[in-house]
């Protein structure tokens, strides 16, 4: 963290935490997600097909990849692609670090993309995309809020307290909280 922001909302995995030094950074887990492989409905049948027998030519996976120096790129290149390369010929047809752009490229039909499930939820529910995680893997993601263990603004401390108090769930608006308090709490 560069001290240009008070709080950071990010994804992490057990193998790829956002920061290794817990003495400098503290974090609160606020939710779960999965990095799911998605593609347009016709693409999976054309591209994946049946797994080829040993010695036969492997089916080609046309993927939209992330650069290796970003979080999803590290996850894709270190954890997903090595296993997939044993079964398929993996061909990166496009590379971008912009996750919404990766989703749009998948929607255009050029290849298979790994995106957070929450981001792809609408396209999956309408059938515009299909989830290929059962065949290609969908690693779990933690959603965390992090901050430096240094003096901060009162606003940042108040926001942090809300994340800790609610376990990452947003607190109800103040007007609703007041109505739900008992008379002894006023």
How would you explain this protein's 3D organization?
- The protein is an alpha/beta fold.
- It contains 7 helices and 7 strands; from the N terminus they run ββαβαβαβαβαβαα.
- Helix 2 links the parallel strand 3 and strand 4 (89-95).
- It is elongated and about 60 Å long.
- The model is unreliable at 170-186 (pLDDT under 50).
Order of helices and strands: EEHEHEHEHEHEHH
Beta strand %: 25-35%
Shape: elongated
Mind summarizing the main beta sheet?
Answer: 7 strands, mixed
Give the total of beta strands: 7
Helix content: 25-40%
Helix/strand class: alpha/beta
Mean of all residue-level pLDDT scores: 80
In short:
With 186 residues, the chain is of the alpha/beta class. Helix content is 34%, strand content 26%. Strands 1, 2, 3, 4, 5, 6 and 7 form a seven-stranded mixed β-sheet that branches.
